Amino acid sequence: MLKKRIIFSLLYDDGFFVQSRNFDKQKVGDINWLLNSFKIENVSYYIDELIILDVSKKKNKHKFISTLKQISKFFFIPIIAGGGISNFKDASILLSNGADKIILNSILYKKSNMIKNFSSVYGSQSIVAAIDIKKKTNNKYSVFINNGDTEIRKNIKDYIKSIAKLHIGELMINSIDKDGTGMGADLNSLTLIPKKFLKPIILAGGFGNENHFADALSNNKVQAVATSNLFNFIDDGFKIARNHLLKEFNLAEWSPEKIKKLKYKSI
Amino acid sequence: MSSKYKLAIVDMGMGNIRSIENCLNYLGFKYEIIKQPKKLEKYTHVILPGVGSYKKAMHMLNKTKFTNRIKFLVRNKKIKILGICLGMQLLGSSSNEGGYTKGLSLIKNKVLKFSTKELKMKKIPHVGFNSIEIRSNKNNFFKNIPEQANFYFVHSYRMLVENFSDDFAITKYGINFLASFNKENIYGTQFHPEKSQNNGLNLIKNFLK
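The joint structure predicted for all components is written out below.
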């Protein structure tokens, strides 16, 4: 049986991993912090996929790629990378340096005809379309691009319908309002998705504990949940959350001991 | 492990070869990446990875003359080949992805898109971890793989189970389709072993043993 997924997102900003709250970003630590203090390798045993997103205002692609390469060495689960992908070269560099899938956002709005170029080579299954949404004062949702800076003028339902027609594999919906709050995800946003939308949905933003995951995973519209919170699942957080969820949900289960045992001695 | 193995990864310039390299490095297996078919006969084991378009991949294999070289060496020199994801599909006779495309035809199976009838409103692509059911394990390809082990799938096209008496495993997504097989010196996985934690690491090890 196909399992639901728990995804962890790392937000990378100019050499640092950041904690985001409503898209305001705070630097937490660099790659050494991530490897040695955060112990990202231990996290890999208790999640199903990893997102690495370059949210730097000024992109240093070389540095980001080297970070991606370093992290992908010991991740035997899929890695999704992205952040500011605007042309074919951006995508192909990521896909040949450790990413299994790419995540696209602003380009879906700005140059949607480009998506075909990606899918004709890498297949639509390697493309995750992401949209950042925000509830406005009138209780209606709108879509933001450019890292949450720019509101687009399109009706959100029409926008999602237009994305459904693109050659994409999955759709990720990220709530700017819930981002980093740890108060639970915006399950209401699922009503924006048309009934006949047959691509897997990843819900992101607001997950603070395993009960929030449970609330989202029990919704049959949701195939995966994603959190980028560096603090809510620190230490054994993902282990505890996963073990709790395994009792109720159909999630994949692995053996960290076996993975460690398979490691070649001289590494 | 036999010390005589010599492993090549075929690089078609499509998709994530690095994840297979990471996996081999972790397990401690040496390998070389080849972009030209000339040197292929030096190897005892070949991994044919692949994500993306069938048509594009076959076009690359034909253009670089890998197609004939692989077919000859697998059939006559009995080198071991492991096709991963699209790589497994390429081992088949044909696919209807982007129009009819002839495959390497090392096995007879055809590649077809999951039909809406098969899927019964299930989402496509089939993406995520799914369990496999091992139907036959005479050659021990699935050694140390527990029953209902989970592997990572991401695909919209599938092969059905036909003509298999050797090792094979199925997965159910709407219908039962071919998840993995070993027929003599030919191996395939529709899933990504390099992205399937201890289950996948073990399977790669079994191929190279």
